[in-house]
């Protein structure tokens, strides 16, 4: 194990990569955040809190709250859309599960993950417990986001291709970093918080084939695990010093390879902030389907003219939404529907939309799936490895539509709606926010919360913000 001599912001006797991660956590300050980082935090906070409120009413969300309530530890951290308060770890578990609970949360393209439903629940819950200001909370959010996503970029696309759920795996690192930042851990304790988090990193995408509402809870599980890792480190428990780059560390055990040459350079603070690249979801389904939805929306209402639809797909994304799924063409539950590329493409062709309304309709048993399955069965999917090579970190779509008259049309989408290059407008973001919050909070209170989030006064307390969510 090669080691370097540390400065006061990094621990001794560990490899350069681990030292670089700890230095990022120790040294990042609010004043270092640039305009894209602040804009990313603003988009992420509005989207995530709206999702926590709206998704709180899903059946599995009620089960998550009942589970947490039955064994909760007392505390001052609030559960969104509720007057209930719990310990920070318990509240973040519930709120993280809410935020990730209906395939509508943010995406980070380069790591194929959803960091918002980890770092925001963790930072707000700990912030409430400590009496932190939004300035402190925002700094911790960015810290956790950068640790989570920069590890995730080094692990992509292999983590997804091997069947892991990147969000479930990476959340423990992100939440541990948030905790270390807000609790002002020294470099040594921070190292152990992160290295203990490795022992909690877990979660596969088998739910895409055989279902299971536990997928809805992956954000909560990972977030709480990262926070508990930090608590263990604070209590003096230690972890492996080469938790990322060691011969049996994260990369070589999860991915069967190292992190890459000079991987530590990715964690320098002079690198662009990943949080400035936040993607928001316009559709209520796995992000791997979004470019294909965009490709087929112009054909809505032309089903009678279409003879055949062929989709070429990135191999890693095929694992999640394509032919690697046992029920891609015959979905039997909501997980199958939201992770079925043929189903989502069929929704688009039939003009049914791919948002909150159609998926709630399916969940409530009010959707006729006969025509959807008929269209889906006529959609072919072929793996195209060159898409991975030519468009790394991008969620592209390559679709050919052939008509009954023998003509065809080829559509390629490089930047789906909601991505950095094709962002949702402020009007669209506000519409999504109100769709998720107005029924529960009432129009006036929802607008008050939205205005507060837009202002993002760094001096207000995290507790005052969370008080507006019920």
**Helix and strand element order:** HHHEEHHHHHHHHHHEHHHHHEHEEHHH
Q: How much of the sequence is in beta strands? A: 5-15%
The structural class is: alpha+beta
Largest sheet: 4 strands, mixed
Main CATH class of the largest domain: Mainly Alpha
Briefly note the CATH topology name of the largest domain: 2-methylcitrate dehydratase PrpD
- Assign a percent range to the helix content: 40-55%
Overall number of strands: 6
* CATH homologous superfamily grouping of the largest domain: 2-methylcitrate dehydratase PrpD
Describe this structure in words.
- This protein folds into two domains: 16-277, 2-methylcitrate dehydratase PrpD, CATH 1.10.4100; 287-413, 60s Ribosomal Protein L30, Chain: A (2-Layer Sandwich), CATH 3.30.1330.120.
- It is globular, with a radius of gyration of 22 Å.
- The mean pLDDT is 96.
- With 470 residues, it is an alpha+beta fold.
- The protein is built from 22 helices and six strands.
- The longest helix is centred in the N-terminal third of the chain and has 22 residues, at 134-155.
- The termini are far apart.
- The relative contact order is 0.14.
- The strands form two sheets. The protein has a four-stranded mixed sheet with strand order 4-3-5-6. Strands 1-2 form a two-stranded antiparallel sheet.
């Amino acid at each position: 194990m090669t080691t370097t001599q540390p400065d006061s912001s990094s621990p001794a006797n560990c490899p350069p990569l681990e030292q670089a991660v700890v230095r990022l956590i120790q040294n990042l300050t609010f004043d270092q955040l640039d305009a894209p980082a602040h804009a990313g935090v603003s988009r992420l906070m509005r989207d995530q809190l709206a999702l926590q409120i709206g998704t709180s009413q899903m059946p599995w969300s009620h089960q998550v709250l009942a589970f947490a309530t039955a064994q909760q530890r007392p505390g001052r951290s609030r559960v969104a859309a509720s007057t209930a308060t719990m310990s920070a770890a318990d509240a973040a578990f519930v709120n993280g599960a809410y935020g990730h609970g209906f395939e509508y949360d943010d995406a980070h393209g380069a790591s194929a993950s959803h960091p918002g439903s980890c770092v925001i629940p963790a930072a707000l819950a700990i912030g409430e417990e400590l009496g932190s200001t939004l300035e402190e909370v925002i700094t911790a959010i960015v810290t956790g986001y950068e640790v989570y996503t920069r590890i995730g970029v080094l692990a992509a696309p292999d983590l997804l291709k091997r069947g892991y759920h990147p969000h479930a795996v990476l959340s423990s690192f992100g939440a541990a970093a948030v905790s270390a930042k807000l609790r002002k851990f020294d470099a040594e304790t921070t190292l152990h918080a992160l290295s203990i988090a490795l022992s909690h990193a877990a979660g596969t995408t088998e739910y895409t084939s055989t279902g299971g509402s536990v997928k809805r809870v992956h954000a909560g599980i990972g977030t709480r695990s990262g926070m508990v890792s930090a608590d263990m480190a604070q209590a003096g428990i230690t972890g492996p010093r080469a938790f990322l780059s060691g011969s049996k560390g994260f990369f070589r055990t999860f991915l069967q390879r190292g992190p890459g040459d000079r991987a530590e350079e990715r964690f320098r603070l002079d690198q662009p902030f990943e949080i400035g690249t936040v993607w928001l979801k316009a559709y209520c389904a796995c992000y791997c389907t979004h470019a294909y939805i965009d490709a087929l929306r112009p054909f809505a209402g032309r089903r009678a003219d279409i003879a055949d639809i062929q989709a070429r797909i990135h191999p890693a994304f095929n694992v999640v939404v394509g032919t690697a799924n046992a029920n891609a063409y015959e979905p039997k539950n909501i997980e199958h529907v939201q992770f079925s590329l043929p189903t989502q493409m069929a929704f688009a062709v039939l003009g049914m939309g791919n948002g909150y309304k159609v998926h709630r309709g399916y969940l409530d048993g009010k959707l006729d799936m006969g025509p959807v399955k008929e269209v889906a069965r006529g959609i072919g999917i072929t793996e195209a490895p060159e898409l991975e090579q030519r468009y790394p970190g991008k969620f592209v779509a390559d679709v050919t539509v052939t008509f009954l008259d023998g003509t065809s049309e080829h559509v390629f989408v490089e930047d789906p709606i909601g991505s950095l290059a094709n962002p949702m407008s402020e009007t669209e973001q506000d519409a999504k926010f109100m769709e998720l919050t107005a029924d529960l909070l009432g129009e006036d209170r929802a607008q008050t919360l939205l205005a507060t989030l837009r202002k993002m006064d760094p001096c207000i307390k995290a507790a005052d913000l969370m008080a507006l969510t019920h």
